Amino acid sequence: MKFLKMQGTGNDFVVLDGLRERLPVADWTSLARRMCDRHFGVGSDGVLIVEPSRRADFRMRMFNPDGTEAEMCGNGIRCFAKYVYDSGLSGRREMAVETGAGVLDLVVHARNGTADAVTVSMGVPEFRPDRIPVAGDGQVARDLPLDGVGADVRVTCVSMGNPHAVMFLDRPVAEFPLEQVGPRVEHHRLFPRRVNFEVVYRRGPEELDARVWERGAGVTLACGTGACAVAAAARRHGLIGDRVRVNLPGGPLDIEWDGESEILMTGPAALVFEGDWPAPEA
Description:
Layout: E1 2-8, E2 11-17, H1 28-36, E3 47-51, E4 58-63, E5 69-70, H2 74-86, E6 94-99, E7 102-111, E8 114-121, E9 144-146, E10 153-159, E11 163-169, H3 178-186, E12 196-204, E13 207-214, E14 218-220, H4 224-236, E15 243-248, E16 251-256, E17 264-268, E18 270-276
Parallel strand pairs: 2-3, 4-6, 11-12, 13-15
Antiparallel strand pairs: 1-2, 1-18, 3-4, 4-5, 6-7, 7-8, 8-17, 9-10, 10-11, 12-13, 13-14, 15-16, 16-17
């Protein structure tokens, strides 16, 4: 099977084209685990599959390194858009992509015929606990204490098509023990579908620093849905206005949200290399 290795702000993916090539895959979970392995495979934060859609221009499926299928991936969908544009699958800069979180609209920013950045309409943030989901009562899950995670953790929860728990810090994000606390938050009993965990430091009204523990992947250099969740939670807390730059270890993402309509995320996408993977046994 032919594949591409792509990255968006350091969040890297294997891309497989199910439109131009028949993908003889019987077990996506096993394949994702093997391809994402950074020692024995290609190495990535997930596998993206390009498929046809009856609801949109294309369908994107995404599998985490642990083999679970994710509803959506913000950095992944930018890489997905760059692939379909640069490869000629779509000649239009505006397109709609079906994901597990619904159909998302996006705009490709191209230079010399090649996409170098993408703006994605990421949907309206969901704060209702039963829609995230978060176990418990109430209209919102704000400053929710989490016991048994090895630190004093209080989170504001939001869904961007996938669940997020955001914690605001009074110190730089590099000082928080994310590698130790992250897996405990991900698997906390309050999150029936597990959760992505973000720690955030406010630099100012237009700039936030964040680190992310991604559900099914661990610490990653960036997370697009995570950056949107961080911005949504920060705006609800009155920490920022309509526009903010979220600085992640892999680079910045620009987020716009007026507090009511869909969040817009703009960031880069790049091709790393192409290769061939031995076809798995049927």
